[in-house]
Amino acid sequence: MKILMLHGVNHNMFGQRDPVQYGTITLAEINESLQTLGAELGAQVACFQTNHEGEMCERIHQAFADGVDAVLINAGAWTHYSYGIRDALAILTCPIVEVHMSNIHAREAFRHTSVFAEVVSGQISGFGVQSYLLALRAAVNLVAI
Fold first, then answer.
1. Which parts of the chain register pLDDT below 50?
2. pTM, two decimal places
3. Among the four 24, 27, 78, 126, which has the fewest Cβ within 10 Å?
């Protein structure tokens, strides 16, 4: 089972950025946790991060071409306004799970809306790094159905 984890804008700064919202865990530590759990669940997890919207769309297109089994995405701020990424995600025929470390519904009003909501299987938010691991478990279960 091939699962792709997509990390969005500013996620390369996890561990240094707003520890009240995101804690002190780094992106490398998140990816390592996902890959470890993935191996336990029989899934190979590839991780990708970019601060460039076009690169994110290109990676989603590649995921389609590669026939990945599921996609996890924490697009950061792009979640709330990137129709380009939303439309790229809509091309996928596999389960997509939207992930957020913070509870986006308890934050600023602009964060309450996800333009991805109509094209993802579900959203997990508010559990810190556990959001990623819960999303991976959900994706594996969706693929197994």
1. none
2. 0.93
3. 24
Neighbours of 67 (CB within 10 A): 9
81 is a catalytic site residue: no
Catalytic-residue membership of 100: yes
Query: What domains appear along the chain, each with residue ranges and CATH number?
Result: 2-144 (3.40.50.9100)
Active-site residue, selected from the candidate residues 7, 11, 22, 132: 22
Rounded CA separation 100/124 (Å): 6
Residues contacting residue 131 through CB under 8 Å, at least 6 positions apart: 74, 99, 100, 101, 124, 125
Sign of CA dihedral 76, 38, 25, 54: negative
Q: What is the DSSP letter of 16?
A: T
What interhelical angle do 53-66 and 83-91 show, nearest 10? 0
Residue 50: exposure state from Cβ atoms within 10 A (0-12, 13-18, ≥19): middle
pLDDT at residue 21, rounded to an integer: 67
**DSSP 8-state symbol, 52:** -
**Per annotation, catalytic residue among 100, 105, 112, 132:** 100
